[in-house]
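Think of the structure tokens as a kind of shorthand, similar to the way a musician reads notation: each symbol stands for something richer, in this case the local conformation of the backbone. In the example below we present two proteins back to back. Begin with the first one, reading the sequence and then the tokens, and try to describe in your own words what changes along the chain.
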Amino acid sequence: MTTVLVSPTDGELREELGDTAITSSIPEERGCDVVVFLPSLSIGVQRKSVPHDFYLSIKDGRLAKELPLMRERTTIPILILENEPGFDSRGLLRSSDHRHPYPVTEEGYKKLILSVKYTQGVDVDATSSIEDTAKRIKWYIQYFSKGKHKSLFSRSPLVAQWGIESRKERALYLLQGFPGVGPSLAENIWDHFQTVPLKWCCSKEELGEVPLVGKSRLEKLWSVLQRE
């Protein structure tokens, strides 16, 4: 079950998040504007509009109080900075009216973000508007609701030369998954044996009983390591 709680001071964001978002004081107690409770973790989001709200929250000490609370009372704390910062010809952070810049240089701005991330232990994300922030929070929910993320550590999918991969292409792809086997060696093994010199130690029916092995995948697996 997913529960989305929004601070009473962030009514506009609650509307953008939709009817499932609930107004509550709990986010403020955790230094956040939004807290999302998932079965195994909590996501804490504090949003600051750039430049005005972000600068004032540093000057009046709000951010310094919020960041430790976020880190200590949520599993995944995230500071969202809304709007792209602009800097004038002197390198100072532009104000909303562009007439009275804030005494923050571009280098100083970047150092503040580094401090939030690496000193305070709170991740930093950037959005273009409050609507974009709501979309990003929904994306966090979708992402962290999934228990495991392994795509970064998976091999690239097999791309067939002529649209449908041949038995040889599947065999070469499989061979290159073995330690020390690159494209050239895989080709040599295929040329010598005209197959992958391995066989399933089970029947095709037994292989098909394995979870996630559907009919299409079963045929491909069996054709590469088929038993004579």
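Once you have a description of the first chain, move to the second and do the same.
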Amino acid sequence: MKRGRPKKRKTNNSSLFPRLLLLVFLFVFMFSADKIVNQFRQAQETPKTFVKKVPPKIAEQLSASPLATHRVPILMYHYVEYVEDRSDTTRMSLNINPNIFEAQIKTLHDNNFTFMTASELAEALDGKRKLPKKPVLITIDDGHWDVDTVILPILRKYNARATAYIPSGFVDNDSDFLTKKQLKDLVDSGLVEIGAHTVHHISLKGKLSPIVDYEVIQSKKDLEQDYAVRVTSFAYPDGAFDEKAMNAVEKAGFTSAVSTIPGIQQGIQNKYFLFRLRPGYRTGQDLINYFNQTSFKNW
């Protein structure tokens, strides 16, 4: 009796394909999960309202005659707290948890960055001061209570300096903002420079000249008279400004102003709309790498 060749065992391709597909999916997921999470966080951390364009005429001037610039990261904060009201979406979108903020300050401290104030940067841009090798600015807008109760203790721990932009009309007038005593505590610390943020935190773009002039000039007067400080830097509420607002700020005697335009290159040409970065939840090498990106297109 002849013995035939053994028959090949049939492979069930229909059941093998889903398994291979599942393995590929798991492989991709393992190596992409962190990236996906970070992208999601960054999308949350950078609301569209923070991306403001330079006024067209100014952009044309900059493009026509670019000047030398310096890489100076200016980090922008609003709230540093553990938000209790999770339905407060504005607060949630602008908040950084205290443990993350401390990790960011520690990262900068351990990597030998020099913490500068806004007035010192303005002097450097004007050629009156030499920039350190690794400069960085910490800026806090709006003057909420956590500047004194949360941020200041962390700054003290690392001997880090910062600039706080204060709407003068809100001090001592709302429980969500600094009291006069707390603001004096910031001044007396020697670590926090006070900048102006208008009187009533109103957008200056497109406003009539009398309104713009009052909000700019009076905010400077209020802070200088009440706290015996020299106020030389300004922050535009909501990051909104135009040529009229810029001219009012310069005419009032401010030596610099900060915007919310993402960027890291600072120069004499944008001294009245310095670029800033929102660090989000980046810490450690991730934060340092963020500074080294060259893709920040400002106009």
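Compare your description with these statements about the second chain. The chain has a mean pLDDT of 85.
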